[in-house]
Design a protein that fits this description.
By secondary structure, the protein is of the alpha+beta class. It is built from eight helices and eight strands; from the N terminus they run αβββββββααβααααα. Helix 1 packs parallel to helix 4 and helix 6 packs across helix 7 (222-233). Keywords: Oxidoreductase.
Length: 245
C-alpha cells in the first residue's frame, strides 16, 4: 500500500458515511494515466464525487515508488454556500515530505467569517502543531488563500506522516464535514456574487500556480497537463462556460 492510500481510503469512507455522495464526471483520459520515468512506473489516478452542498470533491493520487508519492485532495462547495474549501496537499519527494492542510477561506479578512469557520478549528490546529513543526516560508502571494489554522509542515520521518499527519488529516476533514452539515444556503444576490468571485479568484490562482504542473508535464506532456488542470482539477470556469454563465 502506498503512503497516502490510507488517507484517501479514510476520506472516501467518511464522506460516504456522512454525505449522500454522487459521482462527479471525470473527463475521458484522466481517470488513470501512467508513464515510465527512470525505469519506475508513475501512476496518477483521479477520483471525484459531489453532494447536495459540495460541488466537487476530488483527489489526484500520484504513485511513483518510494521517492514520489502525492495526494492532492480538495473539496469545493456549491456556489450558494459560503463554506471554505477543504485542501490537503500531501507530497513525498526525494528530499522529504511536504504537508499542507487547511480550510481555505473565501473571505479571509471578514471577522464574522473567521469567527464561523476559523475560530472553531483553531483548537484542532493547536493540538497538532505541537507535534508538526512549522514548515517555514511559503510564497507571500499565497497567504491570502490560507487561514490562521493552516497546518504546514515538512516532517523528515515517514512514520510521522503515517501517524501524526494522518491524525491531523482525519481531524481537519471531520471538522470540515461538521461545517458542511450545518451549512445554510445563501440567497442574498450581493453575497452570492461575492462567493462566486472569491471561488473564481482562488481557482484561477491555484490553476496558474499549481506546483504539480512541472511534474505532470515531465511525466505526461504539456497538453495533457494543461487539460487536466483546467478541465478537471480546477474546472469551475469551464463548467460555468459550458452552462452559459
Amino acid at each position: 500500500m502506498t503512503l497516502y492510500q490510507p488517507f484517501l481510503d479514510h476520506a472516501l469512507a467518511r464522506l460516504g458515511e456522512r454525505l449522500n455522495l454522487l459521482s462527479y464526471p471525470i473527463p475521458a483520459g484522466f481517470e488513470s494515466k501512467a508513464a515510465t520515468v527512470r525505469g519506475e512506473e508513475v501512476l496518477t489516478t483521479s477520483h471525484a464525487f459531489c453532494s447536495a452542498r459540495l460541488r466537487q470533491i476530488r483527489a489526484a493520487h500520484v504513485q511513483g515508488g518510494k521517492a514520489l508519492q502525492v495526494l492532492n485532495f480538495v473539496i469545493f462547495p456549491h456556489l450558494h454556500y459560503d463554506l471554505p474549501f477543504f485542501g490537503a496537499d500531501l507530497v513525498t519527494l526525494p528530499g522529504g515530505h511536504l504537508i499542507a492542510l487547511d480550510m481555505q477561506p473565501l473571505f479571509r479578512d471578514d471577522p464574522d467569517y473567521q469567527a464561523r469557520y476559523t475560530a472553531p478549528i483553531l483548537p484542532v490546529f493547536e493540538a497538532h502543531r505541537v507535534h508538526l513543526e512549522w514548515g517555514g516560508d511559503f510564497p507571500e502571494e499565497a497567504r491570502p488563500y490560507f487561514s490562521p489554522a493552516f497546518l504546514w509542515t515538512r516532517p523528515s520521518d515517514t512514520e510521522v506522516v503515517r501517524t501524526r499527519v494522518f491524525a491531523a488529516f482525519c481531524d481537519y476533514l471531520e471538522a470540515y464535514l461538521d461545517f458542511v452539515a450545518q451549512a445554510e444556503p445563501v440567497s442574498e444576490p450581493d453575497r452570492l456574487r461575492a462567493i462566486e468571485a472569491a471561488q473564481l479568484r482562488y481557482l484561477r490562482y491555484r490553476a496558474e500556480k499549481d506546483p504539480a504542473r512541472g511534474m505532470f508535464r515531465r511525466f505526461y506532456g504539456a497538453e495533457w497537463t494543461e487539460e487536466y488542470i483546467h478541465g478537471f482539477l480546477f474546472d469551475l470556469e469551464r463548467r460555468r462556460a459550458a452552462a452559459g454563465h
